[in-house]
Design goal:
The complex is a heterodimer of chains A (about 280) and B (about 475).
Chain A (H helix, E strand, L loop, with lengths): L26 E6 L3 E6 L3 H20 L2 H17 L1 H6 L4 H15 L5 H4 L2 E2 L6 E9 L2 E5 L5 H13 L4 E5 L6 H11 L8 E4 L3 H9 L6 E3 L6 H11 L5 E3 L15 H4 L2 E9 L3
Chain B lengths: L18 E2 L1 E3 L2 E3 L6 E5 L6 E6 L3 H19 L4 H17 L1 H12 L3 H22 L17 E5 L5 H14 L3 E5 L6 H12 L7 E3 L4 H8 L6 E5 L2 H10 L6 E5 L5 E4 L5 H13 L11 E5 L3 H12 L20 H16 L3 E3 L15 E4 L6 H4 L6 E7 L2 H8 L7 E5 L3 H10 L4 E4 L18 E2 L4 H5 L6
Parallel strand pairs in B: 1-5, 6-7, 6-9, 7-8, 9-10, 11-12, 11-16, 12-15, 14-15, 16-17
Antiparallel strand pairs in B: 2-3, 4-5, 10-18, 13-14
Helix pairs in contact in B: 1-7, 2-4, 3-4, 4-5, 9-10
Classes of the chains: A alpha/beta (about 280), B alpha/beta (about 475).
Chain lengths: ~280, ~475
């Protein structure tokens, strides 16, 4: 009997909960496992703009969901990722990295209903007023995942953005995009509402400048931008509507270390509400 | 209207010098190239003093003084000792508050009632609050051992000169940074008196440096390579230029910029209370307030009633001598600002909205603008979109709460908002949906050192005040 012919996967973008090809019709070749190659969608500027529209549309629903609900969905992502561990290993992602990425989802899942308590509260103003500060999501975040580690780095960029109610458009590692597309399949089966996470594969220098200059993007996470000159030009573009900017992370950054709060808090606004007290 | 006898506050408490130098390294020094400019009283156009115009070399000297003080004195100093200096400064401000208030009103044009009862108490409270943080930073929620950034470059506006100085200097010093502060060109004097207070407090030399000057002085400060932190309060346009200037550096940036706040009045709001809030929202400090309630959104069913009451109230506002204790609205801070307000108000008329001001006699000399409201305004009008920064209110109407939210958020800004309703659930529903850093519900223009202040979107980023405000000056 002849050996079974394998069914290979088409690697596409993830926009608005769907898996479209690039509207440009382009793709690029990457190594997939040991003996095969894959054609990955080469996202265009138009794809990036479509992703912003999807992220914006998802924003109010996701930000308006209860923290408990968002926490459960992030935890569900961890469950799905755990179940697909071998699939990532087959793509060449070390088992340790898959485990760390899974654990990172679990860690952030628990933050959804604690962040408002840790980052907000009552302010003891000198007058007869109730004064409350609460963190809110800044809105649509455009992010560049680090080139490596492809899965853990990507998760470490996405999870802290969405846990508080932001929605993201993320440019995946250009050299190692298969893990990103496979993560999109995890997200699509985790009850995460369509458009909360949108993943672009392709060239950072092609997609990210249009995101950095986009008037309907609220924050720019430059974590994975290795070229200092490109990073500076993106930060200059971001000033057009005063996006919140996270600057690039050095290449030797330890992604396995405790991430702390900084990535979450950089993407929050603080709202302070005053109300008089009186009988 | 009652006739009021003049009740002027005495100027004798203020001893003005004919000329002021820069405050660098603990001493007043002459600027390198000897340039200066005059500071005038906007209520009379009388020259108050000659102020040194800091150049690139002066900025460099000040940054070096701040660096030396950071490395040798202020950085290594235990938090409890930094705290004591800040407590000293808070006390000195309380002791000299009348002098500071009179000087602020002379130089800025704001009514003495406001500088005396709002600005100065808040300035002292700001130093007192932050003094206590200096030795408690490990417990501020940023993890153990948060570190200062180093030298902070701070640029402040002319609308609340000493209060903005306090918002900048108090948290920077409490967290262990040293500062170079540039006051606004038209309002340098209270900052220079604050420098004297630093001397009186024996604050180590170079911890606070004040470099007076104009836009170019500020640019030199922002672009100085040895600055670790930039904090700016001012226009959105300049804020964007600063964001571009620090792109690609390690400089940490916080910006507190313009606004076009909606003040939303529902049909169940107590009208008299709401009208007081509307007046306070837009006419406080001549409307020279970034968080001013400059767009009044009235629910259609009560629009006529509220407007009639508002006009009645506006007719009681007393415009005139800032040093008179009965004055409600003082002088516009400068000729340039008066021109800007007039230009936008004229645009309101030209675009077909209806303009109204109460009968109001304005002084012959100085810069004045009568309190003004525009009705029949829509979102498309310039006076509904652009920050006027003067005593000018644009009135719009809405029918449903959803429409109020949509109109309130229809702006690139996001600094503040006001809501007037007796219904608690509606107030909270609305507060959740307003994209603004501060929401005043059944009140307006309240400030406190413990309450974080700052904007969403193009109103800037970062917060000032409270635990949140410390973050701007720590490596967290």
């Amino acid at each position: 009997m002849s050996e079974r012919v394998a069914v290979r996967k088409t690697y596409k973008l993830y926009i608005g909960g769907k898996f479209p090809r690039s509207e440009s019709g382009r793709s690029y070749l990457v190594q997939s496992g040991e003996n095969s190659t894959a054609n990955v969608a080469l996202a265009s500027r138009k794809d990036a703009r479509d992703a912003v529209v999807a992220a914006r549309a998802a924003g109010s629903g996701w930000a308006g969901a209860t923290a408990y609900n968002r926490g459960q969905i992030l935890y569900r992502v961890a469950e799905m990722l755990e179940g697909r561990r071998e699939q990532f290993v087959a793509l060449g992602i070390p088992g340790d990295e898959v485990d760390a990425a899974t654990d990172r989802w679990v860690w952030y899942a628990g933050w959804s209903d604690k962040l408002p308590q840790v980052r907000g509260g009552v302010n003891p103003v000198a007058g007869p007023y109730l004064n409350l500060s609460t963190p809110e999501p800044t809105g649509v975040v455009a992010a560049v995942a680090p080139a490596a580690p492809a899965l853990l780095g990507l998760v470490s960029v996405i999870a802290p953005a969405i846990v508080s109610g932001n929605t993201v458009v993320v440019a995946a590692s250009p050299t190692d995009p298969l893990a990103a597309v496979t993560l999109a399949e995890v997200l699509a089966t985790s009850d995460l509402p369509a458009g909360v996470v949108n993943i672009l594969t392709g060239r950072i220098e092609e997609t990210v400048p249009s995101l950095a200059g986009h008037r309907d993007v609220n924050a720019l996470d430059l974590t994975g931008v290795a070229d200092a000159e490109l990073a500076t030009s993106l930060e200059v573009r971001a000033a057009e509507n005063l996006k919140r900017v996270l600057r690039p992370v050095p290449p030797h950054h330890d992604w396995y270390a405790d991430p702390g709060l900084a990535r979450m808090t950089a993407l929050l606004e603080t709202k302070t509400v005053w109300h008089p007290k009186g009988g | 209207m009652f006739e009021y006898a003049p009740a002027p506050e005495s100027r004798s408490v203020v001893q003005l010098q004919p000329a002021y130098g820069l405050f660098v390294g603990g001493e007043f020094v002459d600027p390198t190239d000897g340039d200066s400019f005059t500071s005038i009283n906007p209520a009379s156009e009388e020259v108050l003093a000659e102020i040194a115009l800091g150049g690139v070399g002066d900025v460099d000297r000040a940054v070096r003084a701040a660096r030396t003080a950071y490395d040798r004195v202020w950085g290594p100093m235990p938090g409890r000792d930094r705290a004591k200096y800040l407590f000293r400064i808070a006390r000195l401000i309380q002791e000299r508050s009348r002098e500071l208030a009179v000087l602020e009103s002379l130089d800025n044009g704001k009514p003495i009632r406001e500088s005396r009862d709002v600005d100065l108490p808040l300035v002292a409270a700001h130093f007192f609050y932050h003094a206590g943080w200096a030795d408690k930073l490990d417990h501020a929620g940023f993890g153990p051992g948060p570190r200062p950034l180093g030298v902070a470059a701070q640029i402040i506006p002319w609308n609340f000169p000493l209060l903005m100085l306090a918002w900048k200097i108090a948290p920077a010093l409490a967290t262990g940074n040293t500062v170079v502060l540039k006051p606004a060109e038209t309002t340098s004097l209270t900052a220079l008196l604050f420098a004297e207070i630093c001397q009186q407090a024996d604050l180590p030399a170079g911890v606070v440096n004040i470099v007076t000057g104009a836009g170019e002085t500020g640019r030199a400060l922002v672009e100085h390579p040895d600055v670790d932190k930039v904090a700016f309060t001012g226009s959105t346009e300049v804020g964007k230029a600063i964001a571009r200037a620090v792109a690609g550096t390690d400089t940490k940036l916080t910006l507190e910029l313009g606004g076009k706040a909606a003040n939303i009045v529902f049909d169940d709001a107590p009208v008299d209370q709401a009208v007081e809030g509307i007046v306070n929202g837009i006419f406080f400090n001549q409307g020279h307030v970034c968080c001013a309630g400059s767009r009044l959104l009235l629910q259609e069913s009560v629009a006529d009633e509220v407007l009639a009451s508002l006009k009645r109230r506006m007719a009681q506002l007393r415009v005139g001598d800032p040093l008179d204790k009965n004055t409600d609205i003082g002088a516009i801070n400068s000729a340039a600002q008066l021109a800007r307000i007039s230009e936008l108000a004229d645009a309101g008329t030209a675009e077909g909205t209806q303009r109204w001001s109460p009968p109001c006699e304005l002084p012959d000399r100085g810069f004045w603008f009568a309190p003004t409201i525009f009705t029949g305004v829509t979102q498309a009008h310039r006076i509904a979109r652009e920050e006027i920064f003067g005593p000018v209110l644009s009135v719009l109407t809405f029918r449903t709460p959803a429409e109020a939210v949509e109109k309130a958020n229809n702006t690139p800004y996001g600094l503040s908002a006001g809501v007037w309703t007796e219904k608690g659930s509606r107030m909270l529903w609305l507060a959740d949906r307003l994209r603004a850093g501060v929401v005043w519900a059944n009140t307006f223009n309240k400030f406190d050192p413990t309450a974080p202040f700052g904007g969403y979107q193009e109103s800037g980023y970062g917060r000032e005040g409270g635990r949140h405000g410390l973050e701007a000056y720590l490596n967290v």
